[in-house]
TrEMBL record:
GO MF annotation: an example: ABC-type transporter activity
Name of the gene: LOC4803770
Lineage, top ranks: Eukaryota, Metazoa, Ecdysozoa, Arthropoda, Hexapoda
Pfam families for the chain: ABC_membrane, ABC_tran
Compartmental location: Membrane
Organism, as annotated: Drosophila pseudoobscura pseudoobscura
CDD domains: ABC_6TM_ABCC_D1, ABC_6TM_ABCC_D2, ABCC_MRP_domain1, ABCC_MRP_domain2
Chief place where the protein resides: membrane
UniProt KW keywords: ATP-binding, Membrane, Nucleotide-binding, Repeat, Transmembrane, Transmembrane helix, Transport
Keyword Cytoplasm: no
Protein name per UniProt: Probable multidrug resistance-associated protein lethal(2)03659 isoform X2
Domain ABC transmembrane type-1 span(s) in chain numbering: 64-331, 697-982
Entry's transmembrane regions: 52-69, 103-127, 202-222, 685-705, 744-768, 823-841, 925-945
Record PROSITE patterns: ABC_TM1F (PS50929), ABC_TRANSPORTER_1 (PS00211), ABC_TRANSPORTER_2 (PS50893)
Length: 1289
């Protein structure tokens, strides 16, 4: 450890310099060792994690704990007797003890302290290692469960997993420290009781009886603490889950101006959590006052002894005092702490078991070992296939897929009510090279059918047989944090030729050219820094890159425009994957003309199947506006394809790696705070209370309480000396003085007790108030941060602040700070008391203080760095777990579970390496401080024998007992001061996010007179608008100038990445704007963000629903009536469906609204917009995820409900904007064209004409006709000749 300490003192330690983890801490082997034991345990009626731990690890920790406790009890029994012998040597007029005996007694006292120090730290280090191994093994089990959890296993499983890992499993790091204390206290009570009885008779039993009477209270306290902990853990889970949802949907929350509504939700949960923490804090505060109990026990025994008529001697006083102090520690401090800790561990263990018993993905038969992650049982070929279930055989010669009368439901099996099937009676077959299309309305069961193929959903009846390897693209594209290449390759090996052909087929070449680092560009968690179309195509490329036999696509064309959709269909599905089985769910029915087989789903049933020509008429209402494209002329498409082929060949020439770009790699890595925790952090912590006088008062209480206790200790030693001297004139005078002594003793004791209680409860309640305020500041800092912050910081990093760091500030920090303050006043008091007994002892005290200071100076730098590194290496564990939940269907379908498990084990190993170093540093520091304290005890003990001077026996006893308490005090106190500083890094991390640059104010300044009904007309004007995501970034929008008329309908078109969505970012002021945007003549830069955002309605690209009721999702502020909500739902044709749900408007949304289909979620977002009744509506590719019928419904609703509004529509489907008043064509962040679509189509070589011409002739005619008819309708009084000509063309 020496080189770690010296380096840590000179410079900041870095996570890259960590040692390799020890083989005994290898996460993977520990998990694999525990896995079969857990499987055996989980089959029992009521599985128990604690039973499992004792069965597997019993011999690793129980025998050594028994041996250690036996040694400690022996030392504790002999040391006070040796002290008594030494004190007797100094008694007035004694002759029985020689100087040699006195030296032997002194040697015995010092040896007892030395042996304790030499044995204690190796023992504690050993039990830490056992606890850590158990935690790592259990975390591995939890992550394995995450990978295997059923898609329908309920809400918030991701945040629950993070909560279990970060809070419950970390309990195992601590709990084994206290195992031997479970029996040590009661055993010591029996032994010490017997010894004391031999010393002063029955009066000693009064003190022990007082301690024993308090034990039931301790038992109650332990039970109550466990209750409060489970309550606070429950509320913390709710809070972290809610924060997870808020961070995931932060852009939508900002655009809806819902920050305050979610702030109230978080505050309500936080209040409940703090209430539970206050309960456990009160218990902890009461336990902190237990060191007064030994004083009260001594008081009761001495008073009884005095009134029986016996003489109090220094020897008796200090033997009793030592035993009561030791009993106080073992019976009233460590024993209850052991019980409380193990009670908390039982609660945590039960929560881990609850998580590990979540329903898993349904099992299946496998005729070969397909997926190494899911350990499927081998099925012999002789066995007859089951009537019901799923058979998946990868290595079959003939690749095929068959459904036989399949019904499946997302609902969990329940005895109360029958499950509602989401698909029923489905029968069809698909052959090895068939292209199968699946169409149907929103909510008809298309995605459910794919999940049945994947085995993600439990079959109620029927049989699914899959022969071949599967690859799958989910409806919501999953992109994880990593480079674009890593996202595409995922777990497959790199093949240059295939990779290039996939990039080309998935139309990603142009995007990669535009990105600064090509396919090495790192994208954020959930792909935040990409447009919807880019995410969809990267997810598609991942699916296609995997070598498989059966490819499943869940509407990957939804987020791409018509031209790209056509190219993908031809290049990717028809050419690259020809000869493979392809199953495509899509709403773009016109693209399915060349599929081999078509399935039509309605309300979960397969109503029609056959070729495209057979079903052409039936599916007409699912295709709606696009059916004109049936008789396609392929010439135009071929021309476009050949042109793209040429450009792609030119751009696929390998690019040289640019070394300068490597510096950007870690631009978004978590910043490690450096150096000592600044005094400013401590000031900010106490300033959060907002009452400096109260802080000073509570801190003054520490000094007063300790001063009072010191006075009492000195008083007892002087009283014992006075009794030994017996210099009194008469018995009456002796009795009167004794009575006075007893009275003073009683007063001092009561004052000390009162001050201790005030000090302790006052301090903890002050800390709780501070942590409440800090959490509020953190929430405000996060919710008001710029969007750029969320683009570069993964959710795990932010959630770490809300889980682990807030947990530290709530609980760990106040405890460490309390111990540190107590330690400081205790050390000063001890040194003063010892100096009063023998002023020469100030010299070794000064030397000791200097050595301790040097030790701490050497240790604190390394410890602080290691603690920060340990915190930082925890974040990737949570981020990785969170990302796994976002994409677990994709992960399982790609057989990627073993690789993701390896990544998780890697994160765990890095963290355990940091934790091991941190604990090693702690133990080394404690060991050396103990040795320094032992040297000081040696100096104090022998000083009375060496210095040729007369000493009172009372002073000798007081000095030695006080210096002996210094050992425990120093090694605990010095560690706690370091622990406090380490926990202050959590305050630092919370303040770092709480004090981030925030967006402009939410409220409009009074100087801007904003009318209540603004905007009335919806007249937009953009003047030289430039927009970038962060102040130092390049411009995304480059000088936009355009103006809309009031109530105008504007379509915004352009290829993916042209800057269409960035216009919305600018309009909602989510990024850095330069130039002006005016609405009804009002510059939006002067407005408060709430006033601006609440007056513009948005239907976002990704429809977001939150956990809670449907009513909350429609109107979180509770401003609208139920009638208004039902009316809005009727407008979007959801009233019938919502009425059928339990509770109607009060029905619960599952995680992210997963109990609604994608299209239904989009309709809920439309209902929100109707409820808001704003004059400006923005639609961000809102119809991308819906079928044509729902698309038509949305368009109709917009024409009727939003007729008096200005509507901006960002669209991929050109037909949705061709009947708009104007179309704005974007490319590379600039406006290329703006005007009436009909007029723009008259321009030879115009940008809109080029986009339209990329379709087949029939579609081109159809789009031109829509534009012309719309133009005629809007300009009835104008000349119609040019329009007629276009219609004739």
């Amino acid at each position: 450890m020496g080189n770690v300490f010296t380096k840590g003192r000179r410079e900041q330690l870095d996570a890259n310099e960590l040692y390799e983890h020890l083989p005994s801490f290898d996460s993977e082997s520990l998990t694999r060792h525990l896995q079969p034991h857990w499987e055996q345990e989980s089959r029992k009626k009521s599985p128990s994690l604690m039973r499992l731990i004792f069965r597997v690890y019993f011999w690793q920790f129980v025998p050594i704990c028994v041996l250690y406790s036996a040694l400690e009890i022996a030392i504790h029994s002999f040391q006070p007797l040796l002290l008594g012998g030494l004190i007797s040597y100094f008694a007035q007029g004694q002759t029985t003890i020689s100087k040699e005996s006195a030296y032997l007694y002194a040697m015995g006292i010092v040896l007892c302290s030395l042996i304790t120090s030499l044995v204690f730290h190796p023992f504690m280090f050993y039990v830490f290692a056992v606890g850590t191994r158990i935690r790592l093994a259990c975390a591995g089990l939890v992550y394995r469960k995450c990978l295997r959890a059923s898609a329908s296993s309920g809400e918030g499983l991701g945040s629950q997993a993070i909560s279990v890992m970060s809070i419950d499993l970390s309990q195992f790091d601590l709990t084994f420290y206290f195992f031997h204390d479970l029996w040590k206290g009661p055993v010591e009570a029996c032994i010490f009781g017997y010894i004391m009885y031999r010393q002063i008779g029955w009066t000693s039993l009064i003190g022990i009886a007082f301690i024993v009477v308090l034990i039931p209270l301790q038992a109650w306290a332990a039970k109550a603490a466990a209750h409060f902990r489970s309550q606070s853990a429950k509320h913390r889970d709710e809070r972290v889950q809610l924060m997870n949802e808020i961070i995931s949907a932060i852009q939508v929350i900002k655009m809806y101006a819902w920050e305050k509504s979610f702030g109230r939700l978080i505050a309500a949960v936080r209040q409940l959590e703090v209430k539970a923490i206050r309960g456990s804090m009160s218990i902890y505060a009461a336990l902190q006052c237990t060191n007064m109990i030994s004083k009260i026990s001594l008081f009761l025994s001495l008073i009884a002894y005095v009134y029986v008529g016996d003489v109090v001697t220094a020897k008796k006083v200090f033997i009793l005092s030592s035993y009561y102090s030791l009993l106080n520690d073992s019976l009233l401090h460590y024993w209850p702490m052991a019980i409380t800790t193990w009670a908390q561990t039982l609660v945590s263990a039960n929560r881990v078991v609850d998580f590990l018993q979540q329903t898993e993905k349904p099992t299946e038969e496998g005729c070969c070992q397909d997926n190494p992650g899911l350990q499927l049982e081998m099925q012999s070929e002789k066995e007859k296939p089951l009537k019901r279930g799923r058979l998946h055989c990868v290595k079959s010669e003939v690749k095929s897929l068959s459904f036989k009368n399949v019904s499946a439901s997302w609902e969990k099996p329940s005895t109360k009510q029958r499950r509602r099937p989401h698909i029923h009676g489905i029968t069809f077959d698909a052959k090895s090279d068939q292209f199968v299309g699946i169409v149907g309305n929103v909510g008809s069961g298309k995605s459910t059918l794919l999940h049945a193929i994947l085995g993600e959903i439990e079959l109620m009846e029927g049989r699914v047989e899959i022969h071949g390897r599967i690859s799958y693209a989910a409806q919501q594209p999953w992109v994880f944090q990593g480079s674009i290449r890593e996202n595409i390759l995922f777990v497959e090996s790199y093949d240059e030729q295939r990779y290039r052909s996939v990039i080309h087929a998935c139309q990603l070449e142009r995007d990669l050219e535009l990105l600064p680092r090509g396919d090495a560009t790192v994208v954020g968690e959930r792909g935040i820094s990409l447009s919807g179309g880019q995410k969809a195509r990267i997810a598609l490329a991942r699916t296609v890159y995997r070598q498989a036999d059966i490819y499943l696509f869940d509407d990957p064309l939804a987020a791409v425009d018509a031209q790209v959709g056509k190219l993908l269909m031809d290049k990717c599905f028809n050419r690259l994957l020809s000869g493979k089985m392809r199953i495509l769910v899509t709403h773009h029915v016109q693209l399915l003309k060349h599929v081999d087989h078509l399935l039509l789903l309605e309300s979960g049933a397969l109503t029609q199947q056959g070729s495209y020509d057979q079903l052409k008429d039936v599916i007409s209402h699912h295709a709606a506006l696009d059916l004109e494209a049936i008789e396609a002329d392929k010439q135009q498409v071929k021309r476009v394809l050949s042109q793209v082929d040429r450009t792609s060949k030119m751009s696929t020439k390998s690019k040289e790696d640019d070394p300068s770009t490597e510096q950007e790699e870690d631009a978004h890595a978590e910043r490690q705070l450096q150096g000592a925790v600044s005094f400013e952090t401590y000031k900010s912590y106490f300033r959060a209370l907002g009452a400096p006088f109260l802080v000073c008062l509570v801190l003054a209480m520490f000094i007063l309480a300790r001063g009072c206790q010191a006075a009492m200790d000195i008083f007892i030693s002087r009283w014992a000396t006075w009794e030994e001297d017996r210099t009194y004139d008469s018995v009456d005078e002796y009795d009167a003085t004794r009575t006075k002594m007893v009275t003073w003793y009683t007063v001092l004791l009561l004052c000390t007790l009162a001050l201790y209680l005030l000090r302790t409860f006052g301090f903890f309640f002050m800390c709780l108030r501070i942590s409440l305020r800090l959490h509020d500041q953190l929430y405000q800092g996060i919710i008001r941060a710029w969007m750029h912050f969320f683009n570069v910081n993964p959710s795990g990093r932010v959630l770490n602040r809300f889980s682990s760091d807030i947990q530290s500030v709530d609980v760990t920090l106040p405890q460490a700070m309390m111990d540190s303050l107590q330690f400081l006043v205790d050390v000063v008091a001890v040194l003063v008391i010892v100096a009063i007994a023998n002023y020469w002892l100030l010299i070794p005290a000064a030397v000791m203080a200097l050595l301790l200071y040097l030790c701490r100076a050497l240790y604190i730098g390394a410890s602080r760095s290691l603690k920060r590194i340990e915190s930082m290496t925890r974040s990737p564990i949570y981020s990785h777990t969170n990302q796994t939940f976002h994409g677990h269907t994709t992960i399982r379908s790609m057989d990627a579970m073993p690789q993701l498990e390896q990544t998780f084990y890697g994160h765990q190993d890095t963290n355990s390496s940091a934790l091991f170093l941190y604990v090693s540093a702690n133990r080394a520091f404690s060991f050396w401080t103990d040795l320094i304290c032992v040297v000081y005890i040696l100096a104090v003990t022998f000083s009375f024998l060496v210095i040729n001077q007369k000493f009172y026996s009372g002073d000798v006893g007081l000095a030695i007992t006080q210096s002996m308490t210094l050992v425990i005090m120093c090694q605990w106190g010095m560690r706690q001061t370091a622990e406090m500083e380490n926990n202050m890094t959590s305050v630092e991390r919370v303040l770092e996010y709480a004090q981030m640059p925030s967006e402009p104010p939410l409220e409009t300044p009074a100087s801007v007179k904003l009318p209540a009904e603004w905007p009335q007309a919806g007249h937009l004007r953009f003047r030289d608008l430039r927009m970038r995501y962060a102040p130092e970034d390049e411009d995304i929008l480059r000088g936009l100038n355009f103006e809309s008329q009031p109530m105008e309908k504007i379509g915004i078109v352009g290829r993916t990445g042209a800057g269409k969505s960035s216009i919305i970012q600018a309009l909602f002021r989510l990024a850095v704007n330069e130039g002006t945007i005016e609405i009804d003549g009002q510059d939006i830069a002067q407005l408060g963000l709430h006033d601006l955002r609440s007056r513009i309605s948005i239907i976002p690209q990704d429809p977001v629903l939150f956990s809670g009721t449907l009513r909350f999702n429609l109107d979180p502020f509770g401003e609208k009536s139920d009638a208004a909500m039902w009316s809005a739902l009727e407008d979007v044709k959801l009233k019938k469906y919502v009425s059928s749900l339990d509770g109607g408007l009060a029905c619960r949304m599952q995680d992210g609204g997963s109990n609604f289909s994608m299209g239904q979620r989009q309709l809920v977002c439309l209902a929100r917009a109707i409820l808001r009744q704003n004059r400006v509506l923005v639609m961000d590719e809102a119809t991308a995820n819906v079928d044509s019928e729902t698309d038509g419904l949305i368009q109709e609703t917009i024409q009727t409900k939003f007729a008096q509004c200005t509507v901006l529509t960002i669209a991929h489907r050109l037909h949705t904007v061709m009947d708009n008043d104007s179309v704005l064509v974007m490319d590379a962040g600039q406006i290329v064209e703006f005007g009436a679509p009909h007029k723009l189509l008259q321009r030879p070589g115009g940008a809109l004409l080029k986009l339209v011409s990329q379709n087949d002739d029939a579609t081109v005619k159809y789009l031109k006709r829509i534009a012309a008819e719309s133009y005629v309708r809007r300009n009835k009084d104008g000349s119609l000749t040019e329009v007629d000509e276009t219609l004739v063309e």
